[in-house]
Amino acid sequence: LDAAVLGKYRRELGRLVEFCEHQGKFYLQEISLPDLTEFRSSWETDYPSSITRQKVQERLRAFFRYALNAGFIQRNPAAAMSPIKAAQAPTLPLTDDQFNKLLSAIPEAFPDATKAARIRALIRCMRYSGLAIGDAVGLERSKIQQDATKKFTRIVTSRAKTGVDVSVPIPPDVAEELLSVANGNPRYVFWQTGKGQAQ
Known about the structure:
- By secondary structure, the protein is mostly helical.
- Helix content is about 50%, strand content about 10%.
- The radius of gyration is 26 Å and the shape is elongated.
């Protein structure tokens, strides 16, 4: 485990020790499921995010699983803890005003005109195709296809995370902007090495 994860274990197990001392319990064998349930009831104050509470419970279960496997306890009271549901707000798209402000901020944030053009094309690509940033930065030029019969351009690819195929029509000016991005890479629209050299 790295230092950050060890720090989380120390913090969370330190809180468990403090809680148990208040309950008059000083040995792992004395801790029961009701104790852990009561201990967990304070987490909303300590950890406002339900996702964080989920992670804390995972670490608590891992600790007691280790204690069981090591023979320190005969049963694992954390195994029966009910799961914590993560309440995650849906990610909403930018409003037109937010999107325009983002585009207008690019020249100031990226004084290099070539880099600014790439960032602008990337943002517009994500906006009109719905691609996640990981899929957008790995977009191949061959995946931008023109349908001469129907007279529109589309992005045809698959999402890296899910493998789901994507076929999305994009506005002609977005397609033109994507294909004109200058990065010296014949295959990918955006990819470069960290030194500004094409891969």
